[in-house]
Amino acid sequence: MYASIFYYELNFICETQKEGGKPFMTEISQDTVRAKLIQKMIEGQQQYIAKQVGIPKQILSNFKTGKRELWESSLIKLNDYLDSH
Fold first, then answer.
1. Model confidence band, residue 39 (pLDDT cutoffs 50, 70, 90)
2. What average pLDDT does the structure give for the chain?
3. Which of residues 24 and 41 earns the better pLDDT score?
4. Residue 5's beta-bridge partner residues?
5. Other C-beta atoms within 10 Å of 19: how many?
6. What whole-number distance in Å separates Cα of residue 21 and Cα of residue 2?
7. How far apart are CA 42 and CA 54, in angstroms?
8. Which of 7, 12, 18, 60 is 20 to 30 Å from 25 by CA-CA measure?
9. Of 5, 12, 6, whose CA–CA distance to 69 is shortest?
């Protein structure tokens, strides 16, 4: 069975997961997800990622450049997408 609990800790979203009986913590921060996005981006892919995650392209662009932060739900969706692709 797999369970997740999300909570805020300063500017981080912490995820406690229990899979196979072993709990572990992962921290998701705005900067961590932004770095993943920049690393995976190539020309023309931003619009595709925005559509897949359900975030407007302009918001994703502003997040990538550090001009804005994402809401918790968008940050988690983007992080999950970037981890799986």
1. confident
2. 77
3. 41
4. 16
5. 11
6. 9
7. 19
8. 60
9. 12
Within 10 Å of residue 43's Cβ, how many Cβ atoms? 5
Token output for 76: 């988690």
* Secondary element (H or E) of residue 11: none
The amino acid at residue 79 is N
4 or 59, greater pLDDT: 59
**pLDDT value of position 7:** 41
Token pair, residue 3, equals: 């369970």
Q: Which residue ranges form the domains of the chain, and what is each CATH number? A: 2-84 (1.10.260)
User: Do the bridges between strand 2-9 and strand 22-29 make them parallel or antiparallel, or are there none, so unpaired?
Assistant: unpaired
Residue 62: the pLDDT is 94
